[in-house]
Structure formats: C-alpha cells, structure tokens
Known about the structure:
The chain is mainly alpha-helical. It is 86% helix and 0% strand. The protein contains two helices and no strands. The longest helix is centred in the N-terminal third of the chain and has 22 residues, at 3-24. The chain is elongated and about 40 Å long. The chain crosses the membrane at residues 31-50.
Amino acid sequence: xxxxxxxxxxxxxxxxxxxxxxxxxxxxxxxxxxxxxxxxxxxxxxxxxxx
Length: 51
C-alpha cells in the first residue's frame, strides 16, 4: 500500500469518526467521547505516517 493511500484512508476514517462523535453527542456522551478519541488517534497516525 502506498504511503499516500494510507494517509488518505486514515484521514477519511478520522472524518467518519468525528461525524459519529458529533451525531451521538446528545444521546450517548461516553460513546461520543470514545469516538472523538479514536478520531484524534487516526488523524495523528495519518500525520505521523506522512512525516
């Protein structure tokens, strides 16, 4: 897998996780926080992979 493809996939995953965290914020806050943490980790992994 190319480095560029992996970075794009990780950023895409982070975007979906942020969307899920935003959607579940009013109903299930612990799940929303967990999704937000996972989104931050995915974005951080993409940035570190890019470097």
